[in-house]
Amino acid sequence: MLLKFSKIENHYWKWGFYIILLSFGFLFLTMYFCNHYFFRTNAYDYGAYNFAFNDFAHFRNSISPVYHKGHVKFIQDHISFTLILFVPLYWLLAWLTGSYTLLLIQTLIILFGAWGVFKLVELKSDNKLLPVLAGLHYFLILGRWTSFTSDCNLAIITSSMVPVFLYFFEKRKWIPVALCFLFILTSREDMALWTLFIGFFFLAAYWKEKQVRRASFVVIFVSLAYFVFVFLVIIPIIETPEKKFSLFNYSALGKNPLEALAFMLKHPFKILSLLFINQSGNPAYNGVKTEFYIVYLISGGLLLVLRPKYFLLFIPIIAKKMLNDDPIRWSVELYYSIEFVSILPVTVYLIIASFRKKILQFILGLLVCVVTFSMTMYKFNSEKRVLPWWHTTKYTFYKSTMYSSGYSSGFNASRVHDLLNTIPKTASVCASGRILPHLAFREKIYLFPRIDDAEYLVIFTEEDTFPLNQEQFDQEIEKYLNSPDWKIIACEDPLLILKKETNTR
Fold this sequence. Notes:
Layout: H1 2-37, H2 43-57, H3 74-77, H4 82-85, H5 87-97, H6 101-124, H7 129-140, H8 142-146, H9 154-171, H10 174-185, H11 191-205, H12 210-238, H13 257-266, H14 268-274, H15 288-298, H16 311-322, H17 338-353, H18 358-379, H19 413-420, E1 429-431, E2 445-447, E3 456-460, H20 470-481, E4 486-492, E5 495-500
Parallel strand pairs: 1-2, 1-3
Antiparallel strand pairs: 3-5, 4-5
Helix pairs in contact: 1-6, 1-7, 2-5, 6-7, 6-9, 6-17, 7-17, 7-18, 9-10, 9-17, 11-12, 11-16
């Protein structure tokens, strides 16, 4: 009788988690849809991602015309093969979901990550409530929401797969482990450092188990070998005079990973201090690092001091974040905390599961979710953040601004989409930043003011001027309005569509 009741109780908690999963899945899809539909996605990164996705699907590796200067291929920006792996999904989904396809794929992988958190904590705990709370915590952390500002990003996709990787490793399911590992490893050039430390964590945690010890050594060796191969072989091969690899932004450490490693070995205390101080020299960024630590310590991170072995999982992502030259990367903004928030629920709830008393597990598990939710809602108010100028429109789902265009002039989004649909799919187009992601499934798409051989010019005349300021933007538009080579097709404020005349003299 007790066994039967236990099975019913277990089934009940699982359904609770799947209700949470479906609820957040629906909410996230709604938010992504609204952000894209109401033209809040941007040429960088989503327009560039969509162009590359379409390009790979058609068996091309073109120089991306999205970038407003230089001759740059997508793979020169990040050494990533993820979008190539997604090509079958392009042909399966894009006919129906169009430029929303990558946002759908990203949402599904985020949900897959939540499933990994749930299954891993369920595997390591006999308290059926803790896996549900761990899955809920995964969705409540601030960085999960601020990442919506960045639309679609390889870091969001990849970090969501890490809990799944950890789960399959704990289950000793080696084929799924290998597939997850290779997916993570090849998604970005810097992920090998994270998997390297994950391998060290496995090695420390399961040294006495021969099979797991061997698998840990494989993870460590392959991660290190791949990292070296990428920086010593792949990057030099794909670099061109116009495009050098520019994502190693750690001037305080050296010019390349080898110099950085040497510096860290020689100056460990300097490295430790850099994790906390503002090395930019700009006082506007004082407190940015402190804010990050406070937010995530309060959101459950304090428990890590009880089980220091879990720090191995965080060392590379904290170092990558805090030692970077760009102060924005130190912050709680954008997607720059996404690796941290993807595995924090795993570690926090495994620590809670290690406590003997069920009542203590219950109180702490619930308290972590409540405090995390409170911190997230507090920081949803941009005035409560160190960098208050970052807009929250793309993730404050409870505000009416989520479900409207957000432009000061206002416009009929449905009408704009109807007009965009009149542009032939084979035409070359120059578009402003917020329009470009919708038109990127074509062979040639340029970011205004880069015209090149564009046949159509499609722009919002206000609040969409990047990389120009409004005055420069207006001057550029005026040139084409006064040119006999261009004809006005549509002018419905703020949308302007021009078509190049083929028979002008």
